[in-house]
Amino acid sequence: MEEKKSETEIEPPAKRFHTDHQASQLASYNGTPLELKCINTIRALAADMVQKANSGHPGAPMGCAPMAHLLWSAASAGGAGRNHSAASPQWWNRDRFVLSNGHACALQYVMLHLSGYEDCSMDQLKAFRQVGSKTPGHPENFLTKGVEVCTGPLGQGISNAVGMAIAAKHLGANFNTPDFPDIISSKTYVICGDGCLQEGISGEACSLAGHLGLGDLIVLYDDNHITIDGSTEISFTEDVNKRYEAYGWQVITVDDVANGLDDLRAAIDAAKTTTDKPTLIKVRTTIGYGSPNKQGKASSHGAPLGAGEVETVKSRLYGMDPTKSFFIDEDVAAYYKQQAVEGEIARAVWEEKFANYKEAHPEKAAELQRRFNHELTEGVFDDLPTFVFGRDKADSTRKFSEMCLNAVAPKMPELMGGSADLTDSNYTAIKGAVSFQKATPEGSIIHFGVREHAMSAICNGMFSYGGMRPFCATFLQFAGYAMGAIRLSALAKHGVIYIMTHDSIGLGEDGPTHQPVEMLESLRAMPNINVVRPADLNEMAAAYQIALNGVQTPTVICCSRAGVSALEHSSRDKAMKGGYIIRPEEGEGAPDLVLLATGSEVGRCVDAAKALSEHSIRTRVVSMPCQEVFLEQSESYRRSVLPGNVPTLSVEAGAEHGWHRWSHAQIGMTRFGMSGPLEQLFVKFGFDAENVASKGKELVEFYKNLGGNVPDLNARPSFDSFKGPVH
Amino acid sequence: MEEKKSETEIEPPAKRFHTDHQASQLASYNGTPLELKCINTIRALAADMVQKANSGHPGAPMGCAPMAHLLWSAASAGGAGRNHSAASPQWWNRDRFVLSNGHACALQYVMLHLSGYEDCSMDQLKAFRQVGSKTPGHPENFLTKGVEVCTGPLGQGISNAVGMAIAAKHLGANFNTPDFPDIISSKTYVICGDGCLQEGISGEACSLAGHLGLGDLIVLYDDNHITIDGSTEISFTEDVNKRYEAYGWQVITVDDVANGLDDLRAAIDAAKTTTDKPTLIKVRTTIGYGSPNKQGKASSHGAPLGAGEVETVKSRLYGMDPTKSFFIDEDVAAYYKQQAVEGEIARAVWEEKFANYKEAHPEKAAELQRRFNHELTEGVFDDLPTFVFGRDKADSTRKFSEMCLNAVAPKMPELMGGSADLTDSNYTAIKGAVSFQKATPEGSIIHFGVREHAMSAICNGMFSYGGMRPFCATFLQFAGYAMGAIRLSALAKHGVIYIMTHDSIGLGEDGPTHQPVEMLESLRAMPNINVVRPADLNEMAAAYQIALNGVQTPTVICCSRAGVSALEHSSRDKAMKGGYIIRPEEGEGAPDLVLLATGSEVGRCVDAAKALSEHSIRTRVVSMPCQEVFLEQSESYRRSVLPGNVPTLSVEAGAEHGWHRWSHAQIGMTRFGMSGPLEQLFVKFGFDAENVASKGKELVEFYKNLGGNVPDLNARPSFDSFKGPVH
């Protein structure tokens, strides 16, 4: 979260071979010389990477190197014995590691390299922060195997980790058996800094983690007393330990890791044996450890140390040759290779176990396999309901969402989630489903509490764990609370399903604080996310189909609070194209007018079209539940729906902002809403059929007066400048 | 945050005059009969309001009525002795009250009514939640005098209150004198529920409040054990008291307020005498108190109780006649009238004091007056720097922002704020300014810590307090963390200044987690907010002028991390129009092409235009630092800048999403960015001058091939359906 200031640094002259410092570091070190050399190697490599990139964060890796050493060391070597596998980075039962202070990622890449992960070759370490490398400036799960989630936006990683621990506990409860009690038994380890703990999202997530008693979650807090602005004394003087105890966590303090690992080792052991609550280990560290001019200072945080300083650092660290860069001595390489071997053995043991499990419990094994492959169950969409005009009663689209959720849930046990304390408003209850609680980890309904941001981040973590399709819910307006995490669903390709109800001024009396105006457009501006706003039950069924198919793309399903009109020509299949003609114009030839709408406004447009046809204005109504999916259709299909050169009026009870792409004129919100009964609001803001018809007529006349010269919205080239992959 | 479910409720038969219950309520009540009758009147009125509106939240007002009674009672009556004035609701030194659980607003309106506030007449109580009333579904400061901020989105109000307490402490430190030690000496009282305390934003704000030792902040926590989804046992079992102690707060528990106020009274007294730390008073309450079928249940939270139940409630409460609605007995009315009189006396005393202060310290008094009037100082813009092409060196626009901030700050002492721990990246340091800390409350730089959401909410609170122009800063990407509060700046008309740096992929190596793509568009979709993205120093000066002039409109100033080109024809005056021709086309007549850009892309477009003129494509470049301000200009001015029927290519290193309004084709981001040196990224994503020129040429040829038929983007009617006030 910082940047280089190297241009302003004064580089001290390098003093080569500070044998005195080396000796004193070793003398005060309470451990083996090799261990110290290993840790120093991590420090030096991280400093080298940042120096070569001329950009990045050396301080945290140097301070956290002892933690990383233990986390990447086998139990037999006195390490954490974390199960992971360079040969099979996606091994289901690996113990997850999340670097929540993602700016320290040089540390993670170094450890992945030392452990033999292919994506972090020495060449990649040298290509740190360069275009096209697998070692970007913050960890990106979709680029680098061994990285679980995108971290760097502070507080996200630790909250993702809560989701991972939830997924592990839930899957273990459902798939472990008396004869195979540990098929899913992974732990989740986190390193985080004070920044992560200052962010509100981590407070939300960790309060829930304490409530749920997630004993397999172990957080190492890099307590270096330094923030970017200086000492933590200027802004962060709370008693963190006490706060985490208040959340119901076990809290352990380790006063020093620079001079020996015994205390941290004991703390991790205590954390591993505590099964009923998560553990926070507060580890006192020194940022930039080893840098004589910068250690313990903010200046070591976000800028290269400087070539001279890096050399000085190495000369002061036991076992480091200051003349060598990107150097790993044989004994160090051999040490980590051996640790990695133990990880591979653990995986092999597990795989044999799983083979036996497969024989003993073939259905469970196959189900796990399906779920980790993110395959949908056969016929999962078969029970999605159909709305038959004339037969069925119209309702709110949130009600339709509930019907669809309940139609797919029985066939999708991996669908796990819930609402941020609005279950009966979001209509996200699933019939017969059990609440996920300390005593009932098999349950699939999460009561997230009033914690929208953590809810979204937890869903990201659950998705990243594998075997899960998380969903979550709140009012659409409060997507604004969760935007930091929703964005990471999109970036990190987590197919989370967001059910966002009360999607416009149609929320009514709660008023403008709760009525979204800009939210639909805010979300549509984001890459790799489907924003679906269905107009009725058939379109809602399509929304669920789009959402569940979108394994690498999150979906936001926007639902009305109030009832919508019964639509004669709605279609699930057509809605799957993102946009379609829901009411054809009368007669032959191009229509006189196109009304383009989404969600609860579609029915009003159909009514308006009927009125307009009485004025001999042949009006087509297009329903566009999902712009993103519509854009994926062929140009000819898109033109067949939206001719472009026919006067087009878009109608959405949200900001007009992005609709100029699709329409010549807009009826939308140009201000905030107000408190009152929704029908009065719809009239007040012009979304009633009468106003739509009147404005439609006006639009047709506008162009008639211009001699029929309608600007062709389709006559515009697209210059997508970058033709590479979506990520 | 909930809604009516009245249709599903079974209404029990009303039992009139439950004299036995009445008697027992009085018997167990440890206070005066009148006091109990007052509290019951509040309960009944709130229940009536929700019932009449057939929408709203009766439970919290009924549970919190005892707290409200004390907070609106004078010290002489054993109340909190809160200073406020119905006759002068904006009295500077009033003790602020924030109903953070805004859904309980019936309570606030009732209290304002009983205290004689004009905006909450009996007619307004009866118009609760109706279109055009001053009693909307959640409190709105711009509608109702006596309401300080918009609350309802949970966690915001309590965080606003932290800002109010900061403002009071800071103003007191700067304006009180030995002879007048309490000109600014207000306290800030909050009622909040568990929802507010679950939200991360409140954790951020309260941690900072503890750090800063805000002794004049007193929070009453309505601990009713109920959330919308049921008991707090399902999601919120942390030890709240311990958490607040960890933040450095004084914490007091009150076990009961239904049967007497002595404990709460003592707690408030203790809070008022504690000056070095804020106080949380956890008050055990019963939601829906008095409702035999719904008290203590989630069903009393967000739905009318039902007419029968309301009648039953009244019959069970001492002093209530169940046959009467909206009834205030004479003794009750007289009681609150008397309390209000004491408030007016307190104000009169203060006003006399202020008159004397004015004589003794005329400059200070005038300055306070100016600041509370939100008047700018004379000549505040005079020292804004000017960029002279050929003379001055180009730099990053964040550097230019620093220059402008430092140019206005000496003349604007009310400018108070800082960064979310990115001071040296956001360049928000003000020369010579002192940090606002416990020991230095006169300081104007706030070290917010890594707390973007609370930072924004605190700024809202500071603005609402009066006398302050708050600013705050982070990376533009992390506006996503703060969106819930930024939106309330816009809705509540708080002229907060957001300085958001690192505004595109130009951030470089930190990668896509830190590179905003959608953020500019997300913000532009929001009503009542200026999004300014200056291209150089002259435009930055305009940005500060727009921001400071926007007393009722927040402004987001978007700044580049990296250097921008020196621009020959940039102009502060022209930039004040939101958009202008920064490079005219050659020769006479309409140009062949318009390049439209913002910020760091403007210089690249100028370079592209020069290259195109060599191909005889007469190219105009338009810089549009602020769309919102441009839209306020006359149509003729807008057409003179953007003809509409000339091929127009927009270039912004952000989402293309909203640019279709302005341009025929776009160069923008259609995916997330990547980690790498910024110049390589600009080329990779097509923002280099060469690609801009090439695409510009292509666009001209595209329309040539269509026979010169360029769709006229200005030939579109505007249907702003609602012609009322902006709010």
From TrEMBL, chains A, B:
Its cofactor is Co(2+); thiamine diphosphate; Mg(2+). This is transketolase. Residues 1-24 are annotated as: Disordered. PROSITE patterns: TRANSKETOLASE_1. It catalyses: D-sedoheptulose 7-phosphate + D-glyceraldehyde 3-phosphate = aldehydo-D-ribose 5-phosphate + D-xylulose 5-phosphate. Mg(2+) binds at D194, N224, I226. InterPro entries: THDP-binding, Transketo_C/PFOR_II, Transketolase-like_C_2, Transketolase-like_Pyr-bd, Transketolase_bac-like, Transketolase_CS, Transketolase_fam, Transketolase_N. The record marks H57, H301 as: Important for catalytic activity. Keywords: Magnesium, Metal-binding, Thiamine pyrophosphate, Transferase. One of its GO terms (molecular function) is transketolase activity. Its EC number is 2.2.1.1. The active site is at E452 (proton donor). It comes from Stephanodiscus triporus. CDD domains: TPP_PYR_DXS_TK_like, TPP_TK. Thiamine diphosphate binds at H103, G152, P153, L154, G195, N224, H301, F478. Substrate binds at H57, H301, R398, S425, H502, D510, H514, R561. Binds 1 thiamine pyrophosphate per subunit. During the reaction, the substrate forms a covalent intermediate with the cofactor. Residues 395-566 form the Transketolase-like pyrimidine-binding domain. It comes from the Eukaryota. Homodimer. Belongs to the transketolase family.
